[in-house]
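Field log, afternoon session.

UNIT: design team B
ACTIVITY: writing a sequence onto a fixed backbone
BACKBONE:
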C-alpha cells in the first residue's frame, strides 16, 4: 500500500482537465463570446467554509489548457486548512478564459477538497493511535486517482488502486476456488510478489488465512471483541484490516482493538462539495 503523489499523476491530471473542458465547453462557450476577446480581467476564488484544500494542480491544468496566458496565483497549498471567506487563489488573464474555465476548475477543487476535509476529520479521531485509515474503490468514475490523492492530503492512506495491483480475496472468490488455502496458493502462483489480502467473517477463517500465508486479513464486520481476539491470534504474522459498517462513532474504539488498518468507503463516496465562489473584476 503506497500513497499516490502528484508525481504519479501528471498524465492523469492533464487528461482529467481535458475531459472536463470538453464536456463543459464542447464546441465553444457561447456566453463568453459576449465579452470582447481582448478584454483582460482579474478574479479571486474564496471558500465559504472551513476546508482542507486539495486540487491545485487540476485548477492549474484547466486554465493552462484553456489559455496559457492565464496566471494562477495560489494563496494556499494542497493539504492546508482554509477558513471561511479566505482567498484561495487569484487569476489574471483574458476574461473569456477566466469565465469559461471557472466551473471545471472549481468542480475539481470543491470535490477533492471535500475528500481531503472528510479524511482529516476521520484522521483526527484516531491521531494518537497506531492505526492507518484506508480508502476503498468506492470512487467517482474517472476520478479515482484524483480522489485517492485527496485522501492522502487529508491525512489518510491509499488501499489498492484497482483490481490489478493487489489481491483481495472475498467470499465469492473463496467459494469459486474451493477454499481459502486454494485461493491464496493460486494468488501466489498467478502474481508472485503481489500483496494477498483475504476477507474473513470469523476467527476460524482468520486462522485459515494465516495458515495459508495471507499478507493482510480483512476482518469483515467482526465485533470489537472478536477484533481484539484476532490481534492476539495473529501475533504479527499478517496485517489486520477492519472493514464494514464503520463510522465516526465506532472508529475510535475499533482503532483501539489493535488492528493495523481500518478501511472506510465514506472517505470518498459520501462527501459534500466544499462551497467555493469566484469573484471577477475588470
Amino acid at each position: 500500500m503506497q500513497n499516490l503523489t502528484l508525481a504519479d499523476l501528471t498524465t492523469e491530471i492533464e487528461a482529467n482537465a481535458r475531459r472536463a473542458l470538453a464536456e463543459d465547453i464542447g464546441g465553444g462557450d457561447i456566453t463568453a463570446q459576449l465579452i470582447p476577446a481582448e478584454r483582460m480581467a482579474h478574479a479571486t476564488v474564496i471558500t465559504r467554509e472551513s476546508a482542507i484544500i486539495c486540487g491545485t494542480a487540476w485548477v492549474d491544468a484547466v486554465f493552462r489548457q484553456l489559455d496559457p496566458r492565464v496566471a494562477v496565483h495560489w494563496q494556499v497549498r494542497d493539504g492546508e486548512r482554509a477558513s471561511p471567506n479566505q482567498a484561495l487563489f487569484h487569476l489574471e488573464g483574458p476574461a473569456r478564459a477566466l469565465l469559461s474555465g471557472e466551473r471545471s476548475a472549481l468542480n475539481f477543487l470543491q470535490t477533492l477538497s471535500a475528500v481531503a476535509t472528510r479524511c482529516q476529520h476521520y484522521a483526527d479521531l484516531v491521531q494518537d493511535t497506531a492505526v492507518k485509515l484506508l480508502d476503498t474503490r468506492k470512487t467517482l468514475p474517472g476520478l479515482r486517482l484524483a480522489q485517492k490523492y485527496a485522501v492522502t492530503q487529508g491525512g489518510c492512506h491509499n488501499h489498492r488502486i484497482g483490481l490489478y495491483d493487489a489481491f483481495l480475496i472475498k467470499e465469492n472468490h473463496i467459494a469459486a476456488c474451493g477454499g481459502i488455502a486454494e485461493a491464496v496458493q493460486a494468488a501466489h502462483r498467478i502474481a508472485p510478489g503481489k500483496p494477498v489480502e483475504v476477507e474473513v467473517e470469523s476467527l476460524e477463517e482468520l486462522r485459515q488465512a494465516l495458515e495459508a500465508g495471507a499478507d493482510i486479513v480483512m476482518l469483515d464486520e467482526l465485533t470489537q471483541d472478536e477484533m481484539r481476539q484476532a490481534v492476539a491470534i495473529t501475533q504479527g504474522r499478517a496485517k489486520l484490516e477492519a472493514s464494514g459498517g464503520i463510522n465516526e462513532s465506532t472508529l475510535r474504539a475499533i482503532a483501539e482493538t489493535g488492528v493495523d488498518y481500518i478501511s472506510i468507503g465514506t472517505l470518498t463516496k459520501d462527501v459534500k462539495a466544499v462551497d467555493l465562489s469566484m469573484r471577477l473584476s475588470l
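LOG NOTE: The chain is about 40% helix and 20% strand.
NEXT ACTIVITY: expression trials, pending approval
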